[in-house]
Amino acid sequence: MPKTAEAAAQTRPHERLAEALAGEMEAVNALIAERMASEHAPRIPEVSAHLIDAGGKRLRPMLVLAAARLCDYAGPFHLHLAATVEFIHTATLLHDDVVDESAQRRGRPTANLLWDNKSSVLVGDYLFARAFQLMVEPGNLRVLSILSNAAATIAEGEVLQLTAAQNLATDECVYLKIIRGKTAALFSAATEAGAVIAGAPDAVTQALFDYGDALGIAFQIVDDYLDYAGDAGATGKNVGDDFRERKLTLPVIKAVALADAEERAFWKRCIERGKQEEGDLETALSLLARHGTLEATRTEATRWADRAKAALAPLPESDMRSMLTDLADYVVARIR
Amino acid sequence: MPKTAEAAAQTRPHERLAEALAGEMEAVNALIAERMASEHAPRIPEVSAHLIDAGGKRLRPMLVLAAARLCDYAGPFHLHLAATVEFIHTATLLHDDVVDESAQRRGRPTANLLWDNKSSVLVGDYLFARAFQLMVEPGNLRVLSILSNAAATIAEGEVLQLTAAQNLATDECVYLKIIRGKTAALFSAATEAGAVIAGAPDAVTQALFDYGDALGIAFQIVDDYLDYAGDAGATGKNVGDDFRERKLTLPVIKAVALADAEERAFWKRCIERGKQEEGDLETALSLLARHGTLEATRTEATRWADRAKAALAPLPESDMRSMLTDLADYVVARIR
């Protein structure tokens, strides 16, 4: 691991960012609490609060606030946009857990397990609609088109994953399309919307979009790495979930590309045909090790974090710029 | 049945409306086909087309076009708004069929049966996002707030139904809230948005909103009536679906209100506890007959259709106004 990344990991940059943005994040959290209420259907705040209060890192709303701050925004509407991206993210998680039939999220039982799939689908729809109400309020049409495009791209990425993830023909190019859709689209929309609401010049807006895009890609690659190499205690997920769910991700895609005939048959059985047996996860891990694909996946994540930092380089130096730069290192530093 | 309703049923007013709006509806259908495509994920148009091409009545997009025509709109953007409401409606149907575990819709197997629940959830999300992209394009903030509010109200109505529909304490007031949310909100948003995009005066916009609201309520009451009294061939649904799904609707709510102790125990067992036996549907139908609640439900539907017509009465006479008036009669005339 590069020295700077190690140092960044020690200071936990997303906490530094959270501290710098604490006042505004409090306002965002109040807005979220206010808007996830429902006069008529008490099931809605129950389900939403279960997920929202579990306390994710609130990375996406922080990216909106950070971008707006970087561009010296003085108005109130970045708060609405920050709440918007958190609602879109939460709606996506509720639906993802139904689609993946997950039992755990953020170290707690999922809503589909505590209530039912119906509640997760419908409360997700409600939060999605609330997100759109919120994003309309600033009255900025360019922001509206950024965020509604992102919502479509996210859904498209999820559907693409559904059809491509169990197909061994899925290559790194398709993988990039999937994660750019399902993850990076909301990161880049967050940073771009923050810049646009602040009326930033096009070059700055583009730089912040590029930063969000690369950061989101790095973030998802790291997630997919940790699914095979992570510490269940730290990640709140079990090792091998993606393997069991037959979801092709970068470490396996790279291993499939280097597989001999016997290894190929193994992947075909486990991922495409879904006939998994006791000991298969161990075999899979040994194949990833044989071809060094976890190492290669880490390199790929670092490359995207570097691209994120490079995107910010042309902007004037500032506290916020340096925090965002550190954040890119930190995302990769989750790999130990 | 009143004479006018009978006459209207014979001329099929929604077909007359469809004829009057044929050119614009063709443009709307082209826009729908274009926007339901996906460059990356072919599963999306497969699933969407299965439902959209099955040919619903396209009542909601026609209401947008009719309202815009009534207000002499000359621009192109009513087409986007018409496609928007059809996408929201289709997304809702995809999610409803997952929630209700339905096997049939519009006389065909449902998407969740042909593909899987995952595809229905995610393609529904995609169509929902596409709806928001479309509604942003006209650049009219008032229209955006009408349609995004409607989306939230729909989801809220669906969640309310989820928690209230199996509870015998649910009365006509809660029922009205549910159907106003899950059905009438999109009808009233359609007519209101058509008026607003045309720049209609407030009184006209309000009249068209009130018309859509009352029409949607009448429409849903008739749907709920037909679930007990309909002809499966004509409705494409089976008699008693709501009973089997333990969904309290107006005919049963009225019967519960009039039930003696033994009848109450019957409803409690079938709806609240879900312990249904052979012959229960027949018993349920005989209880509805004993208390005359199907007749009372029909009366209620007629009352809402009359309100819809009354809402239009202050507007100047025109071909379009008289077609909308006939449409209100037709909605109730589906009850024979």
TrEMBL record, chains A, B:
SUPFAM superfamilies: Terpenoid synthases. Its EC number is 2.5.1.90. Its cofactor is Mg(2+). Keywords: Magnesium, Metal-binding, Transferase. One of its GO terms (molecular function) is metal ion binding. It catalyses: 5 isopentenyl diphosphate + (2E,6E)-farnesyl diphosphate = all-trans-octaprenyl diphosphate + 5 diphosphate. The keyword Metal-binding applies. The keyword NAD does not apply. One of its GO terms (biological process) is isoprenoid biosynthetic process. Pfam families: polyprenyl_synt. Belongs to the FPP/GGPP synthase family. Supplies octaprenyl diphosphate, the precursor for the side chain of the isoprenoid quinones ubiquinone and menaquinone. This is Octaprenyl diphosphate synthase. It comes from Vannielia litorea.
